[in-house]
Amino acid sequence: MARIPTLTDDEITTALAELDGWSVVDAKLHRELDFGSFVRAFGFMSSVALVAESMNHHPEWFNVYGRVVIDLTTHDAGGISQRDVALAKQIDALSAAHAG
For residue range 7-50, what is the model confidence (pLDDT) as tens digits? Predict the structure, then answer.
């Protein structure tokens, strides 16, 4: 199987400019969201779970009450890949739909 290529620093910088609220922390795409309630946060996470499963690309995430912290990396590539950027774009769209 062909190895998934990681993005260069320039490609990551370009991708970040197209994403809402993402940064790079510990060599992973990182975003923190606050939905104001557990129900809204959980609804968002459920929506992301369905998209992530369909992409066969799953986030590292953490949730307390209305706060969701997401980290994206492609373990098979050993870093950030286009798969992470594609999922981040989907997450951006879903977060806008679940904002209260």
Answer: 999 999 999 999 999 999 999 999 999 999 999 999 999 999 99
Tokens 């990551």 map to which residue? 12
pLDDT in tens, 68-96: 999 999 988 899 999 999 999 999 999 98
Q: Check if the beta carbon of residue 4 is closer than 8 Å to that of residue 76.
A: yes
CB 29 within 8 A of CB 61: no
- Extract the tokens encoding 86: 């594609």
Tokens of 88: 């981040």
Please report where in the chains the tokens 């994206």 appear, as a residue. 72
Closest Cα to residue 57, out of 37, 76, 38? 76
Tokens 């499963």, residue? 53
